[in-house]
Amino acid sequence: MSGARLLGAAFLALSTAGLAPSGPDVRQSADELNAPYDGLYHFARVRYGGRDGGFGFRRRGGEATWAHDYPRADHNFLKIMQEATLVPVLTDGSNVVALDDPDLFLYPAAYIVEPGFWQPSDEEARSLGEYLEKGGFLIVDDFRGDDELDNLQTQLRRALPEGNMVMVGDTDEIFDAFFRITPQEVVPPYGGLPPFWYGIYEDNDPTRRLQVIINANNDMAEYWEYSDFGYYPIDLSNEAYKLGVNYVVYALTH
Hints:
The chain is of the alpha/beta class. It has a single domain (4-253), classed as Domain of unknown function DUF4159 (Rossmann fold, 3-Layer(aba) Sandwich), CATH 3.40.50.12140. The chain is built from 7 helices and 7 strands, in the order ααβαββαβαβββαα. It has helices at residues 9-14, 30-33, 72-84, 122-133, 146-159, 220-226, 234-253; strands spanning 44-47, 95-98, 109-113, 137-141, 166-167, 196-201, 210-216.
């Protein structure tokens, strides 16, 4: 752990240069794209809004909301995980999984993006609740404003009816799971609203395991996707990578 903290500031962002493939069409079947379970750490991205990512929730260009930054962000992040940790990682793929897919339970951590208008079915909400109660960990990223936060809280309450969403303190273990992070240094790429971190703890006890970590008013995967383009300062991309590494290491060790 101490050696990981000695990594140079430029290493994290620059080590992804040229590594991310252009990526498949997200409309392809996930069954065709997902790598089979093999014991390695696989990045698991939650697909929602129907099997085709539909229900009208699409970004410009027809991209489904669950697929924002996919697959470049996922692939770049996996390269960082491989280089910075001893976690055995599958670096050449990113698995996409629906919440009601039994394969969800193969992954210790799952990532969901743009949940501001996310409305899981009853079956998806039930399955997510079971996943979290059995030790799964949900990473929530890329949304802004009180309305989107309120929707997220409503949907998570359907999955964990007794779970309370609370602020995660700067000294929480998750910010020191691998790298020591000062959360406020993970600056939102779009500016505007200040970032906050919320979570749901097991049995609503902050001394126990976090089941959900929420990046409010932030978008760490935006940095991951473009870290080899020079759009953002290296230091900011590094902090976003370190945050993601901490989340995964936390999920694997709790």
